[in-house]
Amino acid sequence: MKIIDAHTHFFPNSQMLPTPQEWAKKHGESHWIMLCADRPDGKRTLQGFPSVEKFISDMDAAGVEMAIIQGWYWQNSESCKEYNRLLRMAVRGFEGRLKICASIQPADVSSALEIIRSARDDGFCGIGELHDGVQHFNYSSEDFSKIALEAAKEELPICLHITGNNERNYPGKIPTANHAALSAARSCPNTKFIFAHWGGEIFFDGNEKLLDFGGNIYFDSAATPLLYPKNPEIWSKAAKIDMGCSLAVYGSDYPIRLYPKKGSVEEMINIVADAKDNFGKSTATSFFYGNAKKLFL
C-alpha cells in the first residue's frame, strides 16, 4: 500500500545555527522554545531533531513513500521567511520524497500574501501549519479571508492546528478558535483546508455532519497516539466515520516521539502499524494515499 505522510515537521539542524534552540531564541520564538527545548521539569522534550538522511531512513523503514513537511506557526514574519529559506535548502536533492509547506504569519497579512504568491515557484505545495492561539490572528477577519482566497488562487491547501476541547493537558497546549476556523473554511469553499489532529475532535463530534463540509475540509491524524493514548480504537472509529466521506488524511507528526515509553528516538514504524492494523480497509487507500495526493501533488 502506498503511503503519504501528510503531516510531518523538520528543523534543519545544520542550517538553524548554532542550534535550532538558539536560532529560535534569536528570533524571539518563545512558544517553539517552550515546546522543543529542554523542559523546566527536567523531562526530555518529545520533539526529535533527525538529519534529513535519518528522516528518509525512517520513511523507508515504515514504508512511507513521501512525506509532506508542514511549516511551523512562527510568531514572527521574519522567522517564517528565514525558516522557509532554510527548509528549501534542507530538502534539496530529496524532492522526490519530501515536499514542503510554507510558513506564514497571518497576523502580518502583507507578508503572508507575499509568501503565498511566490510559494509554487519556490517549491512549496501548501501553507501552514497555522495556529491562531499562538500567532494571534482572527479566523473571522477580512485579512484571513484574503489569505484563504489567495491560497485558493494558487491552489495551495492550508493546514490548521486545531487544539482539542478536552481535559487532556500537555506542555504548550493553547486553545484554538475551532468553530471560527470551521466558519472561515465554509466561507471559502474554493480553498482546501486540513484540520490537523482530527480537528480537535470535530471529526468525532456527532453534532457535526462531515458530508455538509462541502468537500474542502479534511482532517489529519497527526499525533493520534499522544492525543488518544488510552483509546486504541480511535483508528477504527475514524474509519467508520470516514466511510463514504473520504475526508481523513494520514499524518504522523514525525519527528515527535509518539510512543515515548517504547523508545527514546523518533520513528515512524509504530504509528504506521497501528493505523494499518486498525483503519478500515474500505477507505484505507484514500486515507493513506489518495487524499494527500489530491491535496498536495
Provide an overview of this structure.
It is globular and about 45 Å long. It has an eight-stranded parallel β-sheet with strand order 1-2-3-4-5-6-7-8, with helices on both faces. With 297 residues, it is α/β, with parallel strands linked by helices. The chain is built from 13 helices and eight strands. Helices cover 39% and strands 11% of the residues. It has a single domain, classed as Alpha-Beta Barrel (TIM Barrel).
> Any idea of the CATH class?
Alpha Beta
Main β-sheet description: 8 strands, parallel
Total number of distinct structural domains: 1
Number of strands: 8
Q: Please give the alpha-carbon distance between the first and last residues.
A: 18 Å
Fraction in beta strands: 5-15%
Helix-strand string? EHHHEHEHEHHEHEHEHHEHH
CATH superfamily: Metal-dependent hydrolases
**Widest β-sheet, arrangement of strands:** 1-2-3-4-5-6-7-8
Sum up the overall morphology in one term: globular
- Fraction of residues in helix: 25-40%
Total helices: the number is: 13
Instruction: Quote the CATH topology.
Output: TIM Barrel
Low-confidence stretches: none
CATH architecture: Alpha-Beta Barrel
Specify Rg, calculated over alpha carbons.
18 Å
What structural category characterises the helix and strand content? alpha/beta
